[in-house]
Amino acid sequence: MPPITKCPTHVPPLEEVAQVLQSGLEKNFESVLVSVVDCPDLTQKPFNLSAKGLCGSPRLADVGGPPYLLPLPQKDKLYNQAEIARQVELPGAFILGAGAGPWQVVGVNSELACTVQVAAEGNEPISINSHVTKVNPQNNLWVLEKLNSTDFNLMGNFLCCEGKPGKVIEIKARKRTGDENFMSATRQALQQQYGPQPVALGGVFVIEKGKANLHVMPDFPCAPLSSDEEVDEWLKFYEMNAPLVCVGELVSHDPGLDLRVEHFHCFSEHGEGGHYHYDTTPEEVSYLAYFNIADSIYRVDQPPVSWDDIKKQK
Q1: Mean pLDDT in runs of 10 for the chain (314 residues)?
Q2: Preceding peptide of 67 cis, ω within 30°
Q3: Is the full-model pTM beyond 0.90?
Q4: What is the CA radius of gyration of the chain?
């Protein structure tokens, strides 16, 4: 069993958080509407997730982290979604979010967009529609593939819940007028309102129109990467087209657990996906999001050294 730390989060009423996000996102988008609604059936298009809803004991799992990839990959950091469900005390959870794909299954390093309903016992999924995006070394272009596995490696940031219907926060935002990406603007609105009280959201958003900047990790680096500049040179960045389905989570404040405070990966039906950074067509972009508030964060297998510490050791 890896070390696990459980941290309770601040859980304001959904209506209050909706008001906070409405006010905050209006600073970054021309048109914003944030409401509390019944969660739509997320197994249907355009979402194509593995459970209908985001409700029922919602909690976040922050697993591993970039220090297990950098400066050199620790390939023995292998995880499984069914095990994570048990470790966050929710066997049989619906799990969705962003992580590193299982190299032992995919063959190379990759970006994982996870959406899986695991069984209460055993490691076989009840429903899975996860995807990985990898880089073809022959032409340096991306390849999006379905992943029929609940394994992942190195790091992951997930919402875990019972997958039930219920009340959630709906965000409709279009025409970006500010400098922040959709998720950073959302997180900063919460941070400004709640300060050191960590408010955690998880769920899905769709980039309905426009284009976005995404990165895809190529295969593992052969030489150590010890700076942000070296990491950016190693990563492959692409402009990709809507519609893109993005799954992940964000936390308004890190309570000292070396959390990744926002992390979303995308997939699509037209063969594009990867790690979401920002939209590149602000005049055209349109977002549709559904989120729930997590009542706790489980920090699983926290690296003993942070990425900031690694950079200082260079």
Answers
A1: 95 98 98 98 97 98 95 95 96 97 96 96 86 95 96 98 98 97 98 98 98 97 89 96 98 96 98 98 98 98 88 69
A2: no
A3: yes
A4: 18
| Sign of the Cα pseudo-torsion (71, 75, 80, 84, in order) | negative
User: Would you state the pLDDT for residue 311?
Assistant: 74
Contacts of residue 202, Cβ cutoff 8 Å, sequence gap at least 6: 54, 58, 60, 96, 97, 158, 159, 161, 248, 249, 250, 291, 292, 294
Q: To 10 degrees, what angle do helices 182-194 and 14-25 make?
A: 120
Rounded Cα distance, 155 and 120, in Å: 23
Which pLDDT belongs to residue 314? 60
Q: Distance (Å, rounded) from C-alpha 241 to C-alpha 211?
A: 5
DSSP calls for the chain? ---EEEEE-----HHHHHHHHHHHHTTTEEEEEEEEEEPP-TTSTTT--SSS-SBSS-EEEEEE-GGGTSSS--TT-EEEHHHHHHHTT-TT-EEEEEEE--HHHHSS--EEEEEEEE-SSSS-EEEE-EEEEEEETTTTEEEEEEE---EEEEEEEEEEE--B--EEEEEEEEEE-SSS-HHHHHHHHHHHHHTTS--EEEEEEEEEESEEEEEE--SPPSS---SHHHHHHHSEEEEEESPEEEEEEEES---SS---SEEEEEE-SSS--EEEEEES-TTT-EEEEEEEEESEEEEES--SS-HHHHHHT-
Candidates 294, 260, 286, 283; CA nearest to 99 is 260
